[in-house]
Amino acid sequence: CPWVERFAQKEAHLMTDENQAYLQIGKHFAGHFSVNHSAKEYARGDVHNNTAESFNSILERAKQG
Description:
Layout (H helix, E strand, L loop, with lengths): L1 H6 L5 E4 L5 H5 L4 E4 L8 E2 L2 E2 L1 H15 L1
Parallel strand pairs: 1-2
Antiparallel strand pairs: 3-4
């Protein structure tokens, strides 16, 4: 994905939920870790995607006005 290469460093560790769309993108990073929201797992040690979820909620709220 060109946007991944443009906006993220390949040395970074990607943290996602279990969405299968992230499997291919995860190969572009030094590490890819996920939590399983379907199993009510939202964090496992340092593995979580809460930062991204919070950022997205702020963007959604801004779109609504």
